[in-house]
Amino acid sequence: MTIVATEFEIKFAVDDLQLLDCMLCDLMIRENMEESNYRYIKMETTYFDTEDGALASQKWMLRIRKENDTSVVTVKTPGEGYARGEWNVEGSYLEDAVPLLMQDGAPQELETYLEAGLMPICGVSFTRILAVLKFEDGTRCDLCGDVGQFTATGKSAPLCEMELELTAGNEETMLTFARKLQEKYNLSEQKKSKVVRARELISL
Fold first, then answer.
1. Is the CA virtual torsion 182, 17, 23, 31 positive or negative?
2. CB neighbours of residue 174 within 10 Å
3. Distance (Å, whole) CA 203 – CA 22
4. pLDDT at residue 145 is higher than 60
5. Do the beta carbons of residue 111 and residue 95 sit within 8 Å?
6. Is 76 exposed, middle or buried (0-12, 13-18, 19+ CB in 10 A)?
7. What pLDDT, in 10s, does the model give residues 93-116?
8. Distances (CA, A) of 91 to 8, 28, 48, 195
9. Containing H/E element for 92?
10. Which residue, 7, 79, 93, 162, could crosslink 83 as a Cys pair with Cβ 3.0–4.6 Å?
11. Position 29 confidence tier, pLDDT thresholds 50, 70, 90
């Protein structure tokens, strides 16, 4: 099944696992959790681009991500503020997924890039610690603690961050909650996407 969406999310860099554990136990989070326990999802992501970096030059992202036993192909495009264009389809092969993504509104130029040749350029493997938060006005968001590592050209770098992604309701409600977390734990907003940070390893 193909899903079309506009992604609205905010990320925070987390200095270490101990701080992340402390945040995940915080009453401010716990009292808004829809269920009492977190879910754990293993993520294995490979990012693709053309040899000349055509997708990166437009700030597009194309990936295949295995989420536990499910493989999903995703393309994202720039948006305003914390919003981005996002299209997803279950699948393991770009050749099968790209036509479906375009059919549901993803940029038609993807076909040109697929024909030109797309190759794996970098990746990230991590465990996602996930909870659904529900607020008084009905707004819902996914709260994710991501822990793992980026990889590219035989190099690696650690990943530890917290992400909040709106799934329903009011953007400002989620952002207000996120800012309270940021202030309480003195967090820095992570402006760079995972693919950008993974690509940075190539030039090291």
1. positive
2. 25
3. 34
4. yes
5. no
6. buried
7. 999 999 999 998 999 999 999 999
8. 23, 37, 15, 20
9. none
10. 79
11. very high
